[in-house]
Amino acid sequence: MSLPAPEAPWENFPALDALRPIRARFFQRVPGLDVATDRETAMSRLAGIHRTSLDRCGFAGMPLASAVQVHGNSVAVVTSRDFFPVQGCDALVTSERGLCLGIYVADCAAVFIADKRGRGIALAHSGRKGTELGIVSRTIKALLQHIEAQPHDLVVQISPCIRPPNYEVDFAAQIRRQAAVAGVAEIHDDLHCTASNLSAYYSYRMEKGRTGRLLAAIALV
């Protein structure tokens, strides 16, 4: 008898669940999977598990739009006709239904941005450097321009990420300020720290770079 394929446990966010056209998940550490290795090997071990996990929680049949993340502030508006992963990019924006945006993190924050009316979504990779470069502000601006919306139309959700005292900079607080300055009123952050809970999350800092990656996913359905 074959054993069931491993899956990545996931968490969801009530603020995004309340938006009917939106499906969003944050995939946690895979129990028992050896990822104490280089990034390429760890990602290859996670790839099939992440695809299975996506399919089993509502993203079945959806292409995964991902990016070669570089801790910069480049934002790409994408459709299913694009080639993935997008090179040299840290945020993705789409208005296409049935396209799953995916960002990988291991201490950095994944920032989910969604239009309350279901016209568009975005997902940004924002760690210390990307936050300093204003990636979230740029992503909000790109989404608003793409769907011709106003800041009050948006909801922002910050994923688990590293935080003080495990890190010297509270970049999650900076992300919240940037979103507020951009005019977004509804900003959510559950304040979970990746470095404080290695049973649930991968932490680049605590595991000295030899670890896996958490997958943030969002789609219009």
Question: Can you walk me through this structure?
Answer:
The protein has five helices and eleven strands. By secondary structure, it is an alpha/beta fold. It has one domain: CNF1/YfiH-like putative cysteine hydrolases (4-Layer Sandwich), CATH 3.60.140.10. The strands form two sheets. Strands 4-5-8-7-9-10 form a six-stranded mixed β-sheet. It has a five-stranded mixed β-sheet with strand order 1-2-11-6-3, covered by helices on one side. Strand 9, helix 5 (171-181) and strand 10 form a beta-alpha-beta unit. It is globular. The model has no long low-confidence stretch (mean pLDDT 96).
SSE run: EHEHEEEEEEHHEHEE
- What does the radius of gyration come to? 16 Å
CATH class: Alpha Beta
Number of strands: 11
Q: Which class of secondary structure composition applies to the elements?
A: alpha/beta
Oligomer: single chain
From the spread of the alpha carbons, the general shape counts as: globular
Major sheet details: 6 strands, mixed
The total domain count is: 1
Name the CATH architecture: 4-Layer Sandwich
The portion of residues forming beta strands comes to: 15-25%
What low-confidence regions span 5 or more consecutive residues with pLDDT below 50? none
Give the helix tally. Answer: 5
Strand order of the largest sheet: 4-5-8-7-9-10
Helix content: 10-25%
Overall mean pLDDT stands at 96
**CATH-assigned fold name:** CNF1/YfiH-like putative cysteine hydrolases
Instruction: Let me know the CATH homologous superfamily.
Output: CNF1/YfiH-like putative cysteine hydrolases
End-to-end separation: 36 Å
